[in-house]
Design brief:
Elements: E1 2-12, E2 24-31, E3 42-47, E4 53-57, E5 63-69, E6 72-79, E7 85-93, E8 99-100, E9 103-104, E10 113-117, E11 131-136, H1 137-142, E12 146-147, E13 150-151, E14 163-165, E15 173-175, E16 184-187, E17 190-191, E18 212-220, E19 233-238, E20 246-254, H2 263-267, E21 275-289, E22 293-315, H3 317-320, E23 323-327, E24 354-358, H4 371-378, E25 394-419, E26 422-436, E27 455-458, E28 461-472, E29 475-491
Parallel strand pairs: 2-8, 2-9, 7-10, 16-19
Antiparallel strand pairs: 1-29, 2-5, 3-4, 3-6, 6-7, 11-18, 12-13, 14-15, 16-17, 18-19, 20-21, 21-22, 22-25, 23-24, 25-26, 26-27, 26-28, 27-29, 28-29
């Protein structure tokens, strides 16, 4: 059994930066109709789902900044005597890319309001050099990522510019030429890497796409808060509850009856393999106390039954009796290759001279074939595939071997507003990922009805605790505590 423990601890002093993968920042400049900076304007930033608000004032140059802002949709209001009130709604704050929202105030009274929607700049390279893609909640859920082992949001990295597939080591996914094991995965700022044999498309914690608010991939020019590896940076943020109670349920079903057989199988006369997958689950989130405390929970199960074609080498009928055959003047060759000794049914080809040697009859001790060995060989089936082995004494037995996948993944998150300057959240995610007759690790049955060679059991557990203290809008203290624990158990029945 291999057990791996990872713990993460971070404390950020008052600086104009945000914690890795947990929050972002919103900045801007307030100007008048002539383009001059407006000083002393009251700026209020409000989360449109939770109602939590932050306040700041513009500087002498008209600039403002909000640090350590959780991702989500925000409204921004700006007020100053002598000018119309300005309100901008539906401004998305995302991870890895600070949001810029510039404001122009028109002369008038505060009773008059100028309202715009989505006025934040969609491209943020002016405030961050991060190059990559950020996918929001709806995009994560709707993109087609249902694979052979469930819905893995890490598959989304393969759609990013600069990412290529294909390697003989690791995960086989590279970004801009970096090693395929140079990726870094975080969930709510906490490490979720498989540190002993990490791959570019693997994390022990299989986050359910319905549990994520955002999924960010940085492929180049990562800023200082991102690190650990030189390749891609993948930051995932867990959804939070809001002032309204919302929930959803889902069920994904896959069966061979809904799919065509693969072209290669049709050419080789192989029936469509079994692939029966069930993925039920649900999400629910809402207020415990409005504008104060919120919860979110997500649960997903997976049950997968699929099959693989397996060919095991077995003895031919004559070899089981101790009669060893050989091609005179040549070498034994299976069917379908140049110089074959037999046809596809195992019969010697015309023109091939066959000799034999009776092992049992020529035993000097006259013991013959050991009964226990004979009994073990008798438990194996006779060959049905003469394209492997040597064709005369050994050949293949091809059959369909089953594999079963059983998964459970869950996450719970609690957000709480202590006061206007202090915000905390706690998130725990755990699961189990059991593969019976694990094909990836060579665990399929060798013969029908036989035992599995390897069963793999996985039990990830990840915790994130976060406390953000904003003494003023441009200063933040952030404490991030986390635990990443997982165990891989490769059992041989």
């Amino acid at each position: 059994m291999r057990r791996i423990f990872v713990a993460s601890l971070a404390f950020l002093l008052p600086v104009a930066a945000h914690a890795q993968g947990t929050t972002s920042r919103l900045v801007g400049t307030v100007v008048d109709a002539q383009g001059a900076g407006v000083a002393g304007a009251a700026v209020t930033l409000t989360n449109e789902k939770t109602g939590v608000s932050f306040s700041a004032s513009t500087s002498q140059a008209g600039t403002y900044v909000f640090e350590a802002v959780q991702i989500g949709s925000y409204s921004l209001s700006v007020e100053l005597s002598g000018f119309k009130r300005f309100v901008a709604t539906a401004n998305q704050v995302t991870i890895g890319a600070p949001t810029t929202l510039n404001v122009r105030l028109d002369v008038g009274g505060l009773a008059e309001t100028v309202e715009v929607a989505g006025s934040a700049s969609p491209v943020q390279l002016s405030t961050s050099g991060n190059v990559g893609t950020t996918l929001r909640e709806r995009e994560i859920q709707d993109l087609p990522i249902v694979g052979g082992r469930g819905r893995n949001p890490l598959d989304l990295v393969t759609f990013q510019p600069g990412v290529v597939l294909g390697a003989n080591t690791g995960g086989g996914v590279h970004v801009h030429g970096s090693r395929d094991r140079s990726w870094n995965f975080t969930l709510d700022g906490i490490d979720t890497n498989e540190s002993s044999a990490g791959g570019s498309n693997f994390s022990p914690l299989r986050s359910n796409p319905d549990s994520l608010a955002e999924f960010g991939v940085i492929t180049a020019n990562a800023t200082a808060e991102f690190g650990r590896n030189s390749g891609g940076q993948v930051t995932m943020i867990t959804r939070s509850g809001a002032n309204e109670l919302h929930g959803s349920a889902f069920y994904f079903y896959r069966t061979p009856a809904l799919n065509a057989n693969e072209w290669e199988n049709n050419i080789n006369g192989i029936k469509e393999p079994q692939f029966l997958q069930h993925i039920p689950g649900f999400s629910i989130g809402g207020p415990i106390r409005k504008n104060k405390t919120f919860f979110f929970a997500n649960f997903q199960m997976l049950r997968l039954h699929r099959s693989f074609n397996v060919t095991s080498t077995v003895y031919t009928e004559s070899a089981r009796q101790g009669l060893w055959r050989y091609a005179i003047g040549g070498r034994n060759q299976p069917a379908g290759v140049p110089g074959a000794s037999v046809d596809t049914s195992g019969n010697p080809l015309p023109g091939v001279a066959i000799g034999s040697y009776n092992i049992a009859a020529n035993d000097p001790a006259r013991i013959g074939i050991d009964p226990s060995i004979r009994g073990q060989i008798a438990l194996t089936p006779l060959p049905n595939n003469f394209t492997v082995g040597d064709g005369l004494n050994t050949a293949g037995y091809t059959f369909v071997a089953p594999e079963t996948e059983e998964q459970m993944d869950a996450v719970i998150k609690i957000d709480h507003v202590l006061n206007a300057k202090n915000h905390v959240f706690a998130r725990v995610a755990w699961g189990s990922q059991d593969t019976i007759c694990d094909n990836v690790n060579g665990g399929l049955q060798r013969f029908p009805g036989g035992p599995c060679v390897v069963n793999t059991y996985r039990s990830p557990f990840n915790v994130a605790l976060n406390w953000r203290f904003n003494p003023r809008a441009s200063v933040v203290n952030e404490l991030v505590l986390g635990l990443n624990h997982f165990a891989f158990d490769f059992q041989i029945p």
